[in-house]
Structures are given as structure tokens and as C-alpha cells.
Design goal:
33% of the residues lie in helices and 30% in strands. With 91 residues, it is of the alpha+beta class.
Length: 91
């Protein structure tokens, strides 16, 4: 089963700005998106649910420093990308 990544306009703006500042992780970012489409539960993504004011959202790791915040809608096989950044910025 494959999943469909949904890129919101706000996510695309943030991702473009983020990747301009961090071009060295473009390959890792692209691999993360590919894995999300194939299997969001792949161990290397370290998918986990968020709590508190971010309850209902999840996060995956691009690497040890950077994350992608997302809304995982399993019933529709949609993954809505919300935000990208380092741990402190995203959370």
C-alpha cells in the first residue's frame, strides 16, 4: 500500500525556505518523503504522535536534528505535511 503526500501551501513555503538554509540535507529530505509514501511506519522515520497543543499530529525525523510535522490520516491513506524544521522550531 502506498500513501499520498498532501503538500499544503504553507508547508511548501516553509520547506522551500528551510531547504534554502539547509541545502546539505536535500538528499535526506527526499529520502524521508519517499519512505513516507511507501511506509510511514518505517523504523528509520521514528514516527511518533505529539501531545499537548500538538495533539492529533505526528512527527518523523529527517535526521537527528530536523523533523517534519504531519497529520497522518490512515483511513484515507493521506499524509498531510504541516511543518518542517529543527526540534525546537517544530515543537
Amino acid at each position: 500500500m502506498t500513501y499520498r503526500l498532501v503538500y499544503t501551501d504553507s508547508y511548501l513555503r516553509r520547506a522551500k525556505k528551510f531547504l534554502r538554509r539547509h541545502p546539505q540535507i536535500l538528499g535526506q529530505y527526499e529520502k524521508t518523503l519517499q519512505l513516507l509514501e511507501l511506509n510511514p511506519y518505517h523504523p528509520s522515520l521514528r514516527l511518533h504522535s505529539l501531545g499537548g497543543k500538538l495533539s492529533g499530529l505526528s512527527s518523523v525525523s529527517i535526521n537527528m536534528s530536523y523533523r517534519i510535522m504531519l497529520e497522518l490520516m490512515i483511513q484515507a491513506n493521506d499524509i498531510i505535511l504541516i511543518d518542517i524544521g529543527n526540534h525546537d522550531k517544530v515543537y
